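ok here's the first one, seq then struct tokens
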Amino acid sequence: MTVKVFGSKLNKEPHETYEVGGLTVEQWLIDNVPSYSPRELPPVSVNLNGILIAPADWVNTWFERDDCLKITLEPKGTELFFGALFLVAIKTMTPKIPKVTSQGATGGEAINQASIKGNKVKLNSPIREVAGKRKVYPDYLTPPRRWFASPREQRVQLLLCIGKGEHDVPFNKILIGDTPAISLGSDVVVRVYGPGEDLSGDPAALWWNDITEVGSSSNGAAGLELTVSNPITPGFNAGSLQFNGYTIAVPSGQGSFPGDWSAGLITRIIANYQYDFIDGGAGPDIIRGSALAMLPLVPGDLVEISGVNGGNYVVNTYTPASGGNPPEMTLLFDNGTPVTALNLGTFATTIGPRGLRFRITVFSTSQITVQRLTSSGAVDSSFPGFDFLQSSTSSVVLDPSSQQGGYRGPFAACPDGEVTQVIEIDVMCPSGLCGLGREGQVYAVSTFYTVEYRDLATAGAWTIIDASHSAATLDSVGFTIRINLPYPMRPEVRVKKRFIQQSERETEINNDTVWYGGRSLLAGPTSYAGVTVMTVDARGGDRLSAQSESQVSAEVTRKLPVRLGGAWLPPTPTRDIAPFAAYLLKSVGYTDDDIDLAELDRLDVIWKARGDKYDQATNTTSTVATVLSDALVAGFSEVSAERGRLRPVRDELKTQVKAMYSPQNFTESLERQFTAVKPGDYDGVDVEYIDGVSWQVATVKCRLQLPDGSYEPGVRVQKITLEGVTSRTRAWRIGMRQRRALKYRRWSYSWSTELDALNSRYLDYVLVADDVPGYAQSAEMVEYDPIGQIVMASEAFDWSDAPPHFLHVRRADGSASGPYEVTQVGDFGLQLRDPLDFDPVTDLTIEPPHLLFGVGYDVLITDISPNGSDAASVEAMAYDSRVYADDDNQPPADA
């Protein structure tokens, strides 16, 4: 059976099989899958003779009838990809559930594993900013390190980032899963470090890089099963070989590559191309040929010639192709003597870096993909691939270092570009490690294995390390060995079982061994500036479940500078709004001079007295304006810009009128607009917030009480989300503020003045009047008698309304004075019960004070826009004290 189709990696038997061969993987998919198209991340994986084939190589990967091609559906929208084909396979797909351990048939206890994890790796993402108090799942700074401290004990070490800046992290608020770390005693060690603190003495802060190819496999096995080594077929006979790019293929009917070869093996390849060997006269002999373009050489490179003129040489000169002339080069012997006695003529021969070595990257019995190695053993990134060649005189044989099989690996122990001097290897016996006597007694046996490593850059001889472990238990056991390398290198590592005991293949012995894990120690930071970090060193055991995907979390409080008496104090744990608002602005370059600190201090007193807090944590990209707005909303506030300074403004219950505007200073008539009640208007507000106890999303209902004592039904509800509010009461208050604003703020106003409006600020409480009969009346002050407290007006007011009567007076700076209770004195006179609180100027050297008699429109200014250099337009909304009626109330029990 050539092609086997699996519904998922959990299926042991294929759902469909096909007998076919002599074509590429991509061609088979094109022929059999109507909706197939090449994709970077296709919804299937392809495995040819045990080797995973990358999607980019499907177009060049051939297979024959005697090959085994496995196609496995991945959970990536496969239905759309395959259509009708593989319908049965799709229906039988099940979620992939990886298992860390597997129990043996004898029923031994699974090993207790350390399964703690932090949050996620946040590559190229903003660092978390915490405001106030918040439960956070810290992010990985380095990969977790898991290893066996003893056969039945696995430990895990984590280095995690809590967030930017300083934080207060109470130890009793650190959880592993839902269990306080403090209750686990010595099983868990947690350390917290402030920004820039030295971590060099903490082993949990080291950077261990996992060998990702090692560990739990997709079929549920705990690791890569170890077997004993065996000789690998060193070479093979083929009628011809076809070279093209990075691929070497055996044409159909001409033979096949040995079935025990695999990716990762080092080969020596003889690929004979035509070269001209020319007499160089008084200089070195010349080698010329188009195939030299495959060898972009520089003087000093070490090369080898196989065949005619075979030997090791040093490049003397190399001239690239130019003007239709092929490349050419001259050589030296290792002692520097020019090479002048070559056999002259045209010969088919092989020229390449000394050793003529290539590493197999993709393998099948019909073709392989290779990468060339330099004379030192490193990958030759300059190799452009083979020129097309079909040859019966070329050959591919194994390098002596690759002529033993049965290994797991080799795998690179650290990423490309990194080096290490320490590696760790984990092995595990998932079914226990013991012998079973005829009468049921359990006795000790051993497992023997060999770890081999070499420098990946040189691909030289393997360093061999023999290891063994003994135990007498039916339970899973694991072991970790540490290997110190002789110098910093990028090692490749392979592992095999060393030998089999005499009775090991019998049921009496339990010593199946898997390569469970591996890692390398990399050079990492010893401190992290600007962030708070924590390390966790935890032991697996019966106090931590290996079945749960526990997470490390902490309830932390941000430390920020706070203000007292108009001065900044050192950072301290705080949940207050004002310190975070100031910190946020300063973090992007604002200074104290750019912020209205006097108003911020005033509001800070109000927020603290009310218990208004801002508790938020975010690691997503956002603007300062958005975050600042969220923080101020928690205190019924927002930010405004005024004459180059940022000023927090609180929408609050107000009693003192700041200014007055009337026809006396309008340049255009006052406009009023009313929004009528419509059937589709909201009759309730639902507020979604994060509860500060459970740290889960919660919702509180905000409804107005009706005259009969019941509450609004909430048929048409406005849903809002509060950021940073973690109290149910405060979320309800903000929601009720919104509900009341929807009901009671239905009037809007607009007017124009000369420069008078520039005396007001955003959300100032002001009085506005027009000339509509029955409302407030306006005039100018003609005269003021401070002794009799008599004001003479330029207009006669209508006193027909029942007393008391009130008057507001506009000062020279535009602010409002009053209200004053007044009585009528003649047609134009008003007597004040109390004297004016300022001395008015009525001699017309400046504009006289304006008078507003009666009840005007109470409004809050929402916008002031200058019009040129001598005018301004104003917009406002109605001020209604009913909007603030629930600011200090408690939510109903059923809200």
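and now the second one, same deal
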Amino acid sequence: MIIRVQSKDGTKRIEILPSSRPRTLYSKVRTDLKLDKNGWALYKVRDGSDLIKERGSYTIADAGLRHGDMIFLREEPNSAQPIETTDDWVFEDEIDVTLSNDDGLTKRKRDPQLCCHGPHGKCLHCSPIEPYDEAYLKKLNPPVKHMAFHAFIKKLRSGASRGKFASLEDISCKIKPGCTDHPPWPKGICTKCQPSAITLQRQQYRHVDNIMFENSMMVDRFLNYWRKTGNQRFGFLYGYYERHENVPLGIRATVAAIYEPPQDSTRDRIEFREDPNSEIVDELAAALGLRKVGCIMTDLIADDTKKGTVKHLRHIETHFLSAQETILAAHFQNQNPNICKLSSNGRFGSKFVTVIVSGNEENHIHFDGWQVSNQCMALVRDDCLVPTIDDPSLGYVKESSSEQYVPDVFYKEMDVYKNEVTKIARPMPIEFFLIEVPAAFPLQPTFTFPEKRSPFYIENRQNLHEIQDISAVIKNLRDITSLSLPVVMERLLDFHLLIFLMVSNVLPLKNLMIDLCKALKSRDEEAFYRLTKSEEWEISSQLIAAHGGQMNHSTSDAVSPIEYMETDEQDEPSWTCIHCTFINRACGDSCEMCGLPKQ
């Protein structure tokens, strides 16, 4: 179809398919009109009130554009629209736009005992409280250690200047390129290109103020891997950001699903493998209205198997986050930057969170949420920080070499005489980087993905004999041809099932998956019904019906994956406990984990 693009230089016709993504439209406009990469955007209305976002999984047809329509190119996007960055057009999160337009003030009523003015006056005892007021934050229940990021921005914009000169800049630990006054490093360096020394300070604010899992069931399934193997596990958290009412201008990361990437693990180590489906999972999650908001990893060691307790490993005498975990958290935060219009490059900090599952003081499984500071992100991004070998609570800032210049990094602490002394960060306590983020579960669980008696197997668990194949699909989608649309939609609403259908060739549904996910997200039965009339859906239904009939005749001979005797890598017999599902690696009459008898 033809789309007309009107700019200050006239009107240009662009030929594009209705199924094309908006990014393709932007690319064609950029090429045909010979435009710069940044500094302009496309709108459906002449006054710029209806933006066509360049990034997104929707199509040109989804955007409401038809053959012959005219769109308008504007060169000055407003503050709520795209932010100009060094690499591509990006957009502020919806929650950030909402909070930036909120004053965040906590209203107070007139105190009849302390206020000596009329009903329309204000005084020190009844005037609204600013969202960054430290005394007020400390009085909250529970007390707030770190103000919200948008409260921090309000604080920058307070005072006589009203934030006229306020800006947020990322720290750089690298030599500025392009200096011609001397030979390049290591032969020369000057004050103009040399990065400044860094004094570590505990960050006053945090980008996320709370982590909320929609329900405990998804986490329980995640922990089942440790229960069955005794090995640690890692996963990515997919969810969304929303307002956190308990903190002024606060943000909550709500988790709806956990994706487990390919990995090899033991009782004290997790090794990541390359994930060929990483981008596909992100695209599918976006179609469901979700995004990658964090990661979760276990550090669990059984304590008393009869009581079901675990060891309390992380406390003030040891560490809360090891140096290696801190560097990993900073790495993921750098991969998922926070979009901010006050920064010159459009990015500042990150909303990505890290959850550690370990034992608490009562030796029960506990969930601790963390972020690391922007200083830590900069040191990790520029390859300046490494862990120490002998103490997990200490990090080490690398020394300069002929290949890399590393600025001096200092921190301050109290000596035995209560004097503040400055030390070089070789080594340094990793606690300077840590920002605690409370993690919790709701009193009333919610389900983006409905709870099922037999949910689809979780990906990358072949060692537990949880195999994602056509049999597992049929187990979830059997009889879909005879079920009503709402029931079929509910059957499909399984994050792990949708990922499998997206990345595998078991059923010919790949081309439908994004549209299916959009229909499932909006509960749009009409759109879903149209998709069920496609050739791909008809073929898939016939395959499921055919294989389902074969399975019905063979179920009497089927054996549950947890009922048969297994062998490990050394061909030693092993068996699965019927009480706690732990896989015992040695012969015995009782379970190593729960202590209950084998039979």
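notes on #2: Confidence is low (pLDDT under 50) at residues 77-88, 550-572. Residues 2-91 form a domain with the Ubiquitin-like (UB roll) fold (CATH 3.10.20.90).
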